[in-house]
Specification:
Radius of gyration: 21 Å
Order of helices and strands: EEHHHHHHHHHEHEHHEE
Distance between the termini: 61 Å
Helix content: 25-40%
Number of helices: 12
Structural class: alpha+beta
Strand order of the largest sheet: 2-1-3-4
Shape: globular
Largest sheet: 4 strands, antiparallel
């Protein structure tokens, strides 16, 4: 059975055929089929060249003034028309960068699950349907959406311009001060700073063999062997291609009003029920799962993906091992693991 996915090649989205996954194909992709002279397998030392996933860099060169200004805007309810919400309302950083609700009003047609904002700068497109291709364009859409921030630019610039602190901060960060492009750039700069490096799995990829337990390593091998890494790969373990939800099994009853995903953006028939493949970074602390938040359990989400995307039924022990591996993708933000309670002041 032939299926298709979309991925970025250069700067263009390209439709690629995906044949049923075989162990040989996946291990070749993952770099585990390489051998030394004499036919002996090499030592299982992970590296960025031999794995389908690469670690997040420990440091990024970002403009601290713009990042700080963007963080202030991200937390400011004045960015919403009724002053009733901020970006952080739906993307609270202390809760994994998402609101934890099954769905929220993301678009004009359907209520969808709120994706985490952490590592969002590593994605190739944004929203479940890929309707925005830059963080700046995404911020513009959110600000103007009547179901979200419901803001106009004249009103927003007037509000920010009446605040001497903002005027000064924009003047220090940008030569031309407070402008619409600079507001969008500041928000995007802060969002690009929201990376969570130094997960246990990142340390493993950098050669720290003891960063994962034996069970977690076995879970990762199953993740590759069964083909999960075909779509969930790269630095963000996803976020860089589109795929139909339900390759090997229908997951929704075809009926009026069903969320057809990317079809609502492109109008192309083959994009029906096609969605952006989400990142699995921090997946253990960012449930519920799928575009409609239908599943609260990570174990149930793994079983569903194996069945409808890969045509496989996992044994309970296999599901457990894969979930153990997925827990190793939880990274750190400002020195603390996501989902970890802040220290109590005494």
């Amino acid at each position: 059975m032939m299926s298709w996915f979309w991925m970025v090649v250069g700067r263009r989205w390209t439709r690629v055929a995906l044949a049923p996954i075989s162990l040989a194909a996946v291990t070749l992709i993952a770099g585990t089929a390489l051998t030394h002279e004499g036919g002996r397998a090499p030592a299982a030392v992970p590296s960025e060249l031999s794995e389908p996933i690469v670690p997040i860099p420990l440091r990024r060169a970002l403009d601290s003034k713009r990042v700080g200004l963007g963080e202030q805007l991200f937390q400011d309810v004045r960015l919403s028309g009724d002053r009733g919400r901020s970006c952080a309302t739906c993307h609270p950083l202390e809760q994994g960068g998402m609101d934890g609700r099954p769905v929220t009003a993301e678009g004009t047609l359907h209520a969808r699950n709120t994706p985490t904002v952490f590592n969002v700068g590593l994605n190739s497109s944004f929203n479940w349907d890929g309707s925005a291709v830059t963080l700046e364009a995404h911020a513009e859409t959110v600000l103007r959406n009547p179901r979200l921030m419901d803001m106009t630019w004249p009103e927003l610039l007037a509000r920010l311009g009446a605040d001497a602190g903002y005027v000064s901060a924009f003047g220090a960060a940008y030569p031309n001060g407070l402008t619409r492009p600079n507001v969008l750039d500041a928000l995007a700069s802060f969002e690009r700073s929201l990376e969570t490096p130094d997960s246990a799995f990142d340390r493993y990829l950098r050669g720290e063999r003891n960063a994962l337990t034996e069970s977690e390593r076995r879970g990762y091998m199953l993740f590759k062997t069964y083909g999960c890494a075909t779509c969930h790969q790269g630095m963000n373990v996803g976020g860089n291609m589109f795929q139909k939800f339900g390759v090997f099994a229908d997951v929704d009853v075809q009926q009026p009003g069903i969320d057809l995903g990317r079809y609502h953006v492109t109008g192309v028939s083959r994009d029906r029920q096609v969605f952006r493949v989400p990142s699995l970074r921090n997946v253990a602390v960012t449930g519920p799962y799928f575009h409609d938040g239908r599943t609260a359990s990570l174990e149930a989400a793994v079983d569903t993906m194996a069945r409808v995307q890969l045509g496989r039924t996992l044994r309970p022990g296999e599901t457990k091992l894969i979930v153990e591996f997925l827990h190793t993708l939880t990274g750190r933000y400002r020195g603390r693991l996501l989902g970890q309670a802040p220290p109590v002041d005494r």
